[in-house]
Design a protein that fits this description.
319 residues; TIM Barrel; two-stranded parallel ribbon; 10 helices
Length: 319
């Protein structure tokens, strides 16, 4: 049985030990699709309050938001403090529970290049200064990064592990318009190619089950993303959570979520198309709380993984 090449495999090969991602949520970061720069309301599947500052350690930052045109950042010291608090808490837990020795700081929530360059530089360098940190992974959107930031990250990548994660979602512009994405597929392709040319590692996020998409469209998205040269991939089924535009569509009967059988079919085909040395960072997704409206099969990730491995077995593969 051959194991699918995972991001964990890649990191262990490179650093000689398991490397743990430390997910960070910095208050003040938002999205151009929420603040009105390119659209309003966010993507239809996004619950905008999911990463509210009220869940963070720095309460006074609630309501404060940065963007690419922000001239000053009066709360940078607070953000740096928040970064330290989160990293220390999570890394200590990973060390005590799993014996973790090395870490990648993952700027995870919202759009983590959507701020003034000096703010980004201060946060990234602070993160790289923490003990046993071997690199950064930065989640962002292709319409929210500047050439200045890309050049800076390329310089960092010469001496440390730098990943940039782009939400591709779909290569079909009609789909991106339906989900209120705020940019087209050409924009994603442009910045993935720029990032690769600059020497960065790129992870692409793909969503299967988007409104109006059939299996052929989902596989075309995977095919094109692979051709763009991404180094790693995250596969997500589209699920519906409360307090989203998609939830309203679902309630009105205008959206039918992808079934587990359909997801497994397209996932297996996408995995078979994938270049062998392209790592997989996520093979499914879900949420185990009462905010999930549908589909019910996205509630328990352990069962999802079990069913994925059951489907992979006849192909001689396992995750």
């Amino acid at each position: 049985m051959q194991q699918i090449y995972t991001y964990g495999n890649y990191l262990k090969e490179k650093f000689g030990t398991k490397v743990y991602k430390v997910g960070i949520n910095i208050s003040g970061f938002t999205c151009p699709n929420i603040d009105g720069t390119v659209a309003k309301g966010g993507c239809t599947f996004c619950e905008n309050d999911s990463f509210s500052a009220s869940t963070n350690e720095v309460q006074e930052l609630k309501g404060f938001h940065l963007n690419l045109d922000s001239k000053t950042n009066p709360y940078l010291d607070k953000q740096l403090e928040q970064l330290s608090i989160q990293f220390n808490a999570i890394s200590k837990l990973q060390m005590s529970e799993y014996g973790a020795q090395k870490f990648i700081v993952y700027f995870q929530s919202f759009t983590n290049t959507y701020a003034p360059f000096e703010t980004l530089k201060a946060l990234y360098e602070k993160a790289l200064s923490f003990p046993n940190v071997v690199g950064l992974s930065i989640g962002t959107r292709s319409d929210s990064i500047t050439n200045e930031t890309l050049e800076y990250l390329a310089e960092l990548a010469k001496k440390t592990e730098i990943w940039i994660e782009f939400g591709i979602q779909s290569v079909f512009d009609e789909t991106l318009e339906k989900i209120n994405r705020g940019h087209d597929s050409a924009n994603v392709k442009e910045w993935i190619l720029k990032s690769k040319k600059a020497g960065l590692n790129v992870c692409g996020h793909l969503i299967f089950g988007l409104p109006g998409e059939d299996e052929a469209m989902m596989l075309e998205t995977a095919k094109q993303a692979y051709e763009w040269g991404i180094d790693s991939v995250k596969y997500h089924p589209l699920y519906v959570v409360k307090r989203t535009a998609l939830a309203n569509e679902f309630t009105r009967g205008e959206f039918t979520p992808i079934s587990e059988e359909e997801y497994l079919t397209v996932l297996l085909k996408a995995l078979q198309m994938k270049p062998q040395k392209m790592s997989v960072q996520r093979i499914t997704a879900g949420i185990n709380n009462d905010s999930l409206l549908a589909p019910a099969w996205c509630k328990d990730k352990n069962i999802q993984i079990k069913n994925i491995n059951k489907a992979l077995k006849p192909l001689g593969l396992k995750y």
